[in-house]
Amino acid sequence: MNIKISGLSHKKALILALFGIVAGLIVSVTSFANTSSSTSIDIASGSVEFGFTVAQDETATTAVTGVTTASIVVSDGSTFAVGDHILIETDGDGDPTSGTQRGWFTVAAKPTTDSMTLLVEADGTTDPQPAGIVSTDVLYEPTVYDSSHTKAGISGYPTSGSASTWTPALNSATSVLAGDDFIVNLKGLTNGDSAFVEVLNTNPNELVKNYTYLNRTFGVYVYCDSVSDCSSGPYSATTTAGQWVAANDVSGETINAVGDLLTLANARVQFNLIGDYVYAITIEGGALFTIDTATGTGDSLSPSDQIGITAR
Q1: Residue 263: is its pLDDT beyond 50?
Q2: Does the residue 89 lie in any domain?
C-alpha cells in the first residue's frame, strides 16, 4: 500500500509556514498543508524521501456537491490537501460512532483544472471511488484540539480545530497555548512498516531577534477510526472509534511520557512511528520571552516549520 502526499524533491523541500497575525501585541500562529501542488509521490516501505507535506493541521469540514465515477466535488476544496485522511458520512454530526458513515478515505489527488474536485481512495484499497456517496454527504478531517484549546476526542469526534497561539508581551515571559500542528496520514504503509517523522523550525535566525527563547513542547496522538483495532499497536491505552490517545513509538514507548521540546537552539523534533495509522502532532504548550514586538527585514514573530517523512 502507498501513501500519496503532495510534495517536491528533497532539494526543493516544501516549507509549511506558520503565519503570524499581529493585532496589537497578539500573534496567532497556524500551519497549513499545501493545497496547490498537483504533484504526488508514493511513500512506501524503503523510500527515503524527505521534506513533503503529509496532511493539514486542523479540521476541514465541507459538503459534497457532486459525485462522478472517479471523483467527488466539494463545497470548499481549498480546505483539503493530498494525503488527508477524511471521513465521509451522511448525518453530518462528525461522529464515526453514530449515524451512517460512508467510511474512511485518503485524498489521492486534486486536479489542477478544478480545485473543488477531490480524487479519493478508500483506505487500504485501490478503489478510486467509494460507492454510495451522494451530494448531501459531508467530509471531515480529525483533529485533537477544539477551538477552545481543550483536548478533544474524549466524548467523540471534534468538529473544529485550533492552532497554537500566544501573546508576545515586551520584556515579559508568556505562555504558548496548546493546539494542533500537523496530521500525519500513514495509511499508505502497512503496520509492519515504520516512518521517521521530523519537524524542523527553519527560521530560528529570525526569531532570535524578537525572542530570548521560544520553547514549544510537542506531543503525538494516534487516531482510532471506526475500522481499526484500537487496543494494540501504537495505542498507549485502549480507546474507541472517534477518539485520540497518546501514541507509542515503534519501540513501544509512549512518546508523550517525555515531552519533545523544540527550541531556538535545538530546532527539531523527531519521531519513529508505526505505519498504517493516522497521527496528530500537536503543540502541548510552551513558553516565550519577548524582547521586541516590531518586525522588519530579517526578523519574525512567527516560526516557519517544515515536516518530512522517511518511510522504512
Answers
A1: yes
A2: no
